[in-house]
Specification:
Layout lengths: L1 H38 L3 H11 L8 E5 L10 E4 L5 E4 L3 E4 L5 H11 L10 E12 L5 E6 L4 H7 L13 E4 L2 E4 L3 H6 L3 H4 L5 E5 L7 H32 L1
Parallel strand pairs: 5-9
Antiparallel strand pairs: 1-2, 1-5, 3-4, 5-6, 7-8, 7-9
């Protein structure tokens, strides 16, 4: 009887151990998979991120189409993208492009305008709208290639009119200052896209200030000196005439 009791007790313990192993194994394996997925930058994850980042056409931006060497083509230019992601193309009409990559859009142009293209070399560039205001020779609203640098933006508008214009330049969005010191970005040549510029952002450049008291005083003194010189010349000339008589 004692042997049967021991056998039954051993069998029961073994069964409980097996049940425990069955319950613990899925939890352990699941935890391992989660940890691996969180800590490991797998190729599939990177490919998904690259795929999302490749879709660069955004509603409200624009697309620049280059048909070089045929610069007279009606497709050569900048075409705004509306708030629904559509672009108005000549002859074809509206086409939604916010779901396309650059390569897909270039293929789309080649396929749908093959009867109007003299050369198959089509290049498309995502463009963003920026306003450059203040102390620059050509202030206004521009479409810029998002791969261009901040230095190229300033070159396009003619630089700054004030010697300290670069130091006083600031980047704003919706009335709030994003960054007030842009000198490092001018030196590195990082693209507008990598810097985080978006359509509607503004670049404010310091406007040459009004002359201060010292500058005004110098102006007045110059005027007084010029007037005194004229009076002196007049008196000298009058004295010479009197002596000659």
């Amino acid at each position: 009887m004692i042997g049967d009791f021991r056998s039954h007790y051993f069998t029961k313990c073994l069964a409980l151990l097996l049940v425990g192993l069955i319950l613990v194994t899925p939890c352990y394996s699941g935890t391992t998979e989660t940890e691996n997925s969180d800590n490991d930058n797998s190729p599939n994850t990177n490919q998904q991120e690259q795929g999302l980042s490749g879709r660069v056409f955004i509603a409200g931006d624009a697309v620049g189409i280059s048909t070089l060497p045929d610069t007279l083509s009606f497709l050569n230019g900048v075409f705004p993208i509306d708030d629904r992601g559509f672009v108005e193309l000549p002859i074809y009409g509206k086409a939604k492009i916010t779901h396309m990559t650059v390569q897909e859009f270039e293929n789309f142009i080649r396929e749908n305008f093959k009867d109007y293209l003299r050369f198959p070399d089509i290049k498309a560039k995502p463009m963003i709208r920026l306003s450059v205001l203040g102390g620059v020779p050509r202030p206004g609203f521009y479409y810029f290639d998002s791969n261009r640098s901040l230095w190229e933006v300033l070159y396009e508008v003619g630089g700054t009119m004030d010697e300290d214009g670069l130091k006083q330049m600031r980047w704003e969005r919706s009335g709030k200052t994003i960054e007030g010191n842009l000198i490092p970005h001018l030196q590195t040549g990082v693209s507008l896209r990598d810097l985080g510029f978006r359509t509607g952002d503004q670049l404010w450049v310091r406007t040459p200030g009004k002359p201060g008291f010292a500058e005004k005083a110098r102006g007045y003194l110059s005027f007084v000196a010029a007037a005194a010189s004229i009076v002196t010349l007049y008196i000298t000339y009058s004295v010479i005439l009197v002596r000659q008589q």
